[in-house]
Every structure is written in structure tokens, then in C-alpha cells.
Amino acid sequence: QVQLVESGGGLVQAGGSLRLSCAASGRVFRSDHMGWFRQAPGKEREFVVAISRIGVSTPYADSVKGRFTISRDNAKNTLYLQMNSLKPEDTAVYYCATSQVAGISAPKRDYEYRYWGQGTQVTVSS
């Protein structure tokens, strides 16, 4: 059974930083593309960033470019999201997910991701 467990969320002031982690089990981690999505209250879930199986493709949402950095450690079966210069509009529940779609590019559409974590809350105060 595939399990994805996010951690690292919390409350931070605007301009601060957080590092999210996503621990994966139940699959060969390096076989999957991985992505981060977020959902703010009253809004639809949106794509944040993804990373391809071997890390050569890392598409970012425009809203987080230059502030967020995705990485993966295949030896530890863990996905990371370093979030810097946080803004109140980054407040959301952040989810990690895995995708088995073919190709070398990490997908950006949530329907291309099969397994999802339970989410971790990130709150940025102004």
C-alpha cells in the first residue's frame, strides 16, 4: 500500500521560511514523478511544483518561482519543498502526490497524480 506522509507545516510570519517533507513508502520512489499541490480555504486545489523521476524536470507555478525549491532524495524516499519569502497568500494545506505517467517531464495536472498524502497546513501571518 502506498503511503505519503507530509510534515513540516506550521505558522510563520510573512517573509519567513518553512521546509516541507513528504515521506513515501509502498512503491519504488525513484520510479515516480512527484508533485506538491496546495488548497486554500474556499479555493480549488492548485499546482505548486513538481519534479521528474530523475530530477531533470522541475516545473514551478509562476506564483512560487524564485521562492520555492523542490528536491528529492531517492535514497531516503523523501520529497522536499523549501519555501522562502513566504506570503500570506501561500497559506493553504499542502499535499504531496506521486505520478506514474510516462515521459521525462513531471506533470502539472492533478488528475495525472494517483497517490496523495493527507496534507500539512501552512499558515503565513501578515
Please describe the biggest sheet, giving its number of strands, its sense, and whether it closes into a barrel.
6 strands, mixed
The assigned structural class equals mainly beta
Oligomer: single chain
Q: DSSP strand (E) fraction?
A: over 45%
Give the ordered list of helices and strands.
EEEEEEEEEE
Could you list the spans in which at least 5 consecutive residues all have pLDDT below 50?
Answer: none
Morphology call:
globular
Please tell me the overall pLDDT.
95
Kindly state the percentage of residues in helix.
Answer: under 10%
Give the termini distance in whole angstroms: 40 Å
- Treating each run of at least 4 consecutive H or I residues as one helix, how many helices? 0
What's the number of extended β-strand segments?
A: 10
- Rg, rounded, reads 13 Å
Keywords:
single chain; 126 residues; mainly beta; six-stranded mixed β-sheet; four-stranded antiparallel β-sheet; 46% strand; globular
Structural overview:
This protein is mainly β. 0% of the residues lie in helices and 46% in strands. The chain contains no helices and ten strands. Strands 2, 4, 5, 8, 9 and 10 form a six-stranded mixed beta sheet that branches. Strand 6 (68-73) and strand 7 (78-83) form a beta hairpin. The chain is globular.
How would the blueprint of this fold be written?
Layout: E1 3-7, E2 10-13, E3 18-25, E4 33-39, E5 46-51, E6 68-73, E7 78-83, E8 92-99, E9 115-116, E10 120-125
Parallel strand pairs: 2-10
Antiparallel strand pairs: 1-3, 3-7, 4-5, 4-8, 6-7, 8-9, 8-10
Summarize the structure.
This protein is mostly beta strands and 126 residues long. Helices cover 0% and strands 46% of the residues.
